[in-house]
Structures are given as structure tokens and as C-alpha cells.
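subagent[fold] <- orchestrator: predict structure for attached chain, return C-alpha cells only, no commentary.
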Amino acid sequence: MKDNKLPGKGPKSQEVLERFLLGFPGQELSGELAGLLAGGLAGVAIYPRNFRNIAELRQLTYAIREAAARPVLIGIDQEGGTKFSLGEPFTPWPSPAELGRLGDSSLVERMARAMARELRGAGVNLNFAPMLDLATNPESPVTSGRSFGSDPQHVSKMGCAFLRGLQAEGVLACAKHFPGHGDAAVDPHVDLPLFDGTRNHLIAQELIPFAAAIKTGVPLIMTAHILVQRIDSARPASLSRELLQSILREQLSFDGIILADDLGMGAIARRYENGESAIKTLEAGTDIAMLCHDWAAVAPALEAVAQAISKGKPATGRDTRIAARLTAQSRARIELLRQRLRQIEKTDAPPLDAIGCRAHRTLAATIRAKLNEPTS
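subagent[fold] -> orchestrator:
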């Protein structure tokens, strides 16, 4: 891996680094990533490519904490099912779609608690779940198998049970993907999906589960790379001030962390340069931006944001005082989240052998048995 360093030194370095959560290649912590963590990086996303077994995963999360020497987000995708979940020896949990069909929120909460115990045992403190997108399009490459259902009230009930279970065992939940993919048929990993719904439609449908999650106390919300063209025809939701500030912050009263999904996805990367998309999402109101699958994109993004901060000039040409206020608010929210992580770290994590233990596998089998029971 090329040894790129964060441009510039001094107090601005942390101000830049704490606005990013990065994925990385390989199965060891590089000196470069360790340096970014020591400088204040908000967090790290871990993928199956980063470890071969549970011992390696636990060693990696320990190394991340040691390098950061402060509370740091260590996130992973563990939704259940087959698409975005961890393989053996983690317990193979039912998918959100199966849980939605079962409709038993108490079992969902129990499952999420067990899932969280396994994650904490491995040293993970953030789960990129629950997914609150509605399954309104059977052909959707995004929601198929991953959504609790098409009814917003039902998705709210299941999603809130899921996030309560995670957080009861010391794992932060991250509701996604705001404002919901609706009936979009394009995978944002490949290209930009379009959603033709009006603001009133969003309020009556897609936003209901997010509003419920906010009332339940979800600390992070991940944004969607989707163009909601009747609300902002110029920018994807993750880069849209109208979606993030006017709707998520002001209308839904969300005061937690806004997390932009991976800016390296085709939906964004095909339209914006790395540095440009990073600046635009932070200007729109994002607190932390993710770059997860292209390490070469990291240095340009950090460089661009560092320059934007040092010059005090938003790329859009808006009044710099607005940008400064948003930056201060984001830093305050990030510090509050670090305080929350600090409290979590004071509690003992479950042992490593909680992963895939008999009790958890029995619970998974119980849920699947209920799914197979004949309906009256």
C-alpha cells in the first residue's frame, strides 16, 4: 500500500480525520491506517476480506483501538440472512425479510441482542443495521431479502425492536438507507437510482420507519445514494442539503450522527471526483463520510477536505459562516458519540466463545421453526 500521509499538520488534522470512516485492504493494520487512527480518524469499517478467522478479527479490532488510543467506531455489516451478514462461526441468523414475515418483534429483539453479544465479543461496537428501506419493488437489488417488508408501520416495529436489541448489549445501531430506496430498481453500488416520489409521499411512506427509529434513540443514520428528483433534482440524497438538513434534521428532529454511505459506490464515483463528493456531502450536513473499497480514493478526499477547511471556503460558494456552524455542530455530535463509546468500553465485553454458541444457535433454530409453522 502506498504510504500517503494526511496533507498538512497541526490542529486541523483531527478536524479532517474525525469526519471519515474508512475501509481498508488486507488483513493487518498498516502503518498508514494506524497513523490516521492516532490522528483522530472517526472509525473503521471491517469486511470479510480483512480477516480469516475469529482470532484474527479480535486481534484486528484490538489493534484498531490501540492505534486510536481514544474511542473509535469499529463497524461491520451484520443484518442476518445471506447478503450482508457474517459467516461461520458466527451464528447464521434469519434474514430481515424472514423476520418481517414472522412479525414477532420480541423475537427480533432477542435475536439482535444475541447478535450484538457476538459482535462485542469480536471487538465490534457498530452494526450497519437495521435496514429500514421498504420492500415496495420485488425486483429491487437493494431490498430483496434485506427489508422487513413493504408496510411502513410493520417495518418500524421490526426495525425498532432490532435496534433496541443491539443497543441493549452495547452495540451502536445505524439505521439505513435514508430516505429509503422506495421502488428504485438500480443498485447504487453500480449507478445512481432514481426515486420519483414527492415529499408528501416520503412523509407518508418511506420516512415513517426512520421517524420511529429516531424516537427510539438510534444514534446513527446512514444516507442513501439515490436521486429524489422531486425534492432535489441536482444532487443524490447523501449530498443534498434539502434532504439532510430540511428533512432529516429539521422535520424529523434527528440530532445524532449522519453517516454517508461509501462514496466510492458507482452512484457517486461515476459523477464526482473523490475530493468533490467528500466536500459536498459534508457541506450538505453529513457528519461522517465513508470510503470503504478504494484506498486510492482516501488521500484525495482527505486532501480536498483539509484544503476546504483551511481556506474556509465551501465549494458551493455559500456563506462561509454557515459551513463553519455546520462543522462545529458535527464536531460536537461526534464528541458526544465518543463519550457514549467511552461508557460502553467501561463494561465487560462477552467472551469470544459467545460467537456461535449453543444458546444463540438454538434461538436461530427456534425462529426458523416458527417460520415453518403452518398458518391457520
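orchestrator: received. Logging for downstream: The two ends are 59 Å apart (CA to CA). The beta strands are 20-22, 43-45, 73-76, 126-127, 172-178, 194-195, 220-223, 227-228, 257-260, 288-291.
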